[in-house]
Amino acid sequence: MSPEPGEPPSPQETTAVTQEVVPLTPELLISQLLRGGVLLSMSLVTCGMVMTFFRHPDYFSSPDALQRLTAPDAAPHQLTDVFEGVMAVRGQSFVMAGLLVMITVPVLRVALSLGIFRAQKDRTFAAITTGVLALLLLAFFLGGVE
Amino acid sequence: MAAVLDATPFNFVAIVLCVSIGAGLLGSLLGLGGGLILIPVLTLVLKVDIRYAVGASIVSVIATSSGAAAAYVRDGLANLRVAMFLELATVAGAVSGAMLAGMVGGRALYFLFGAVMAYSALAMLRKLREDRSPRAEPPPDALADRLGLHGSYYDVSTGGEVTYRVHRPLVGLGLMYIAGTVSGLLGIGSGALKVPAMDLAMGLPIKVSTATSNFMIGVTAAASAGIYFARGDIDPFIAGPVCVGVTLGAFMGSRFLTKLKSGSLRMLFVAVLLWVSYEMLSKGIRG
Predict the structure, then answer these.
(1) DSSP 8-state symbol, B259
(2) Are B227 and A143 in contact (CB under 8 A)?
(3) Is A17 on the interface with B (CB under 8 A)?
(4) Angle B248-B220-B246 (CA atoms, 0-180°, nearest 5)?
(5) Given this model, what pLDDT does residue A118 score?
(6) Taking CA atoms, which of A98, A117, A125, B43 is between 20 and 30 Å from A134?
(7) Where are the domains of chain B?
(8) CA-to-CA distance for A90 and A93, rounded, in angstroms?
(9) Sequence-ordered alpha helix ranges (H) in chain B
(10) Is the CB of residue B221 less than 8 Å from the CB of residue A106?
(11) DSSP B175-234
(12) Where are the transmembrane segments (chain A) (predicted)?
């Protein structure tokens, strides 16, 4: 299956073809995950910032607003708060959601590596990767109880 | 907390965004992380509380690391097995570092930051003079053999496949714990500590060390970022523009400009870094 010469393939066709020709190596999978995660996170953060200023025109003029915004505990810093804010289409929560996606990307990368090592039947490295994943989850857990 | 002059939120975000683009650009030119440049500007110039500066920086560290690593991994330059093995230590270190950061005061953070910054500047200076003579074949290492850490990469400059052998993985593991702790405490990638641990102690080629360090930094930073988030140290009004700005800056740096070759320009930057580290140290001592 090769694309018709001379006919510019549509974007979907190109990806389909490259996926057929080039086998998805573990390296390529990890690379795509990293790139996709960063792009998603950046779009969420940018949208969130734009939304915030759109909904609060006084942020362009009032210096007092900054004091309120950067005061401790003004920002959502619990998963449930962020989720509720996103549902209510609040700009700040979109920014937080974007930052959380960014924080999650490396964790997903480790989880994906675990899957790859298991598929390769590499038991030593599957164990090492499980250890790294456990430590990461421990970090999130420790942060939560503090 | 972040008492920044008398700026409106919009002005503040715009200033932070511009500063972050600059930090990302400069960081990628110098081969340092953006955090090392960003944190002094946020704290010393914009008077942001160091805890918020660290929280914002750590997220931007994940962003630049993931962006750069996507290319390094695709090109087969990063050693994924060495990275995963050493991440055991960096993540453990990052957890200790982020927990410690909740206990030590702001002055200690300034002091430690100044010290790490001075070290990084001097390490950069040493790299300037160092000649790249081929090193001797490292002695065989049983653990490295068992874990299958050795690897090879395609060198663009010579156009050939370069194979290399890894040794002293446990020494590397110990050094990485320290690097992880520093990263968790200060919200920087601490690549300046990770690269020598692989390059000098474990015998990986410098290109592989740099690529692998970049790849690992994201996971190390994610561990501490989780803790900073739960503690409420990640403020969207600071971390949002920082994250977007540093990533844009680093992307521009890697895309449109080649790495700084000029020795004298680098010397100038080393001087600036040393001066800033002196400022941070004295802020740590005087309070």
Answers:
(1) P
(2) yes
(3) no
(4) 10
(5) 92
(6) A98
(7) 9-286
(8) 6
(9) 9-30, 34-40, 50-74, 80-101, 106-129, 142-147, 169-186, 191-196, 206-231, 236-256, 263-286
(10) yes
(11) HHHHHHHHHHHHTS--HHHHHHIIIIIS---HHHHHHHHHHHHHHHHHHHHHHHHHHT--
(12) 93-112, 124-145
Rounded CA gap, A49 and A40, in Å?
14
The predicted complex's ipTM stands at 0.81
Tell me the per-residue pLDDT of A104-146, one tens digit each, with 9 for 90 and over: 999 999 999 999 999 998 899 999 999 999 999 888 887 766 5
Cβ(B174)–Cβ(B89) below 8 Å: yes
* Chain B CB contacts of A143 below 8 Å: 98, 226-231
Q: Among all residues of chain A, which has the CA nearest to that of B221?
A: A103
Q: Which residues pair with B164 in a beta bridge?
A: B151
Burial (Cβ within 10 Å: 0-12, 13-18, ≥19) of residue A64? exposed
pTM of the model: 0.80
Distance CA B166, CA B169 (A): 7
User: How far is residue B237's CA from residue A128's CA, in Å, rounded to a whole number?
Assistant: 37
| From B7, B76, B94, residue closest to A27, measured CB to CB | B76
